[in-house]
Amino acid sequence: MAIHGVHYLRVLNNVAYHTMGHSIFLEDAAETKNTIEGNLVVDVRSSWSLLNTDTTPASFWITNPDNIIKGNHAAGSDHYSYWFDVLKTAIGSSFDPNICPENTQLGEFRDNVGHSNGRYGLRISDNLIPRQFGCSPFVYSGNAADAYPSNAPITAEFHNLVSYKNR
Predict the structure, then answer these.
(1) How many domains does the chain have?
(2) For labelling alongside 67, which of 77, 99, 107, 154 has CA 20 to 30 A away?
(3) pLDDT per residue over 135-152, tens digit each?
(4) Are 154 and 131 in contact, with CB atoms under 8 Å apart?
(5) 15: exposed, middle or buried (C-beta count within 10 Å: 0-12, 13-18, 19+)?
(6) Whole-number Å distance between alpha carbons of 67 and 70
(7) Predicted structure pTM score
């Protein structure tokens, strides 16, 4: 299920079995405020004929963190259950240099399960650094009394993930 340039979509209570490449994914990194809830994804296989990232597939591939991912179950992927592969800007037909997913605040990630995967139950790209104004840089005043920069990082909270039997 490829979601492109959509906001406020609800993807609820679906089952995906024995798929190739990412199963439920936000592809262009422009997608925000979508709810992906109560889905079951089982047996996700690698593909060398789809997207480049489909060679290391995720049951849920999230390229913009400003979405709600809750109450889902993922099992038996060749690689990942949940992959936050945040990008610098939106891509594809949604390209916009004013959309900065790698610095966008996390919407909600809660009560998800990931098990029996070839790699990780949850993979988070190291460039996920959410802040209040995603496309604005950190700005330091240079004043020692001002310990924090403007537009400082905001904590991303992942709640109640159950992850087991992953390599």
Answers:
(1) 1
(2) 77
(3) 988 776 666 555 566 788
(4) yes
(5) exposed
(6) 10
(7) 0.91
Q: At a CB cut-off of 8 Å and minimum separation 6, what does 129 contact?
A: 102, 103, 153
Q: What is the 3-state secondary structure (H, E, C) of the chain?
A: CEECCCECCEEECCEEEEEECCCEEECCCCCECCEEECCEEEEEECCCCCCHHHHCCEEEEECCCCCEEECCEEECCCCEEEEECCCCCECHHHCECCCCHHHCCCCEEECCEEECCCCCCEEECCCCCCECCCCCCCECCCCCCCCCCECCECCCCEECCEEECCC
Which residues form the domain of 19?
2-164
Q: What is the pLDDT of residues 74-85, one digit of tens each?
A: 999 999 999 999
- In this structure, are residues 25 and 3 in contact, taking their beta carbons and an 8 Å threshold? yes
* φ and ψ of 72, to 5 deg: -100, 160
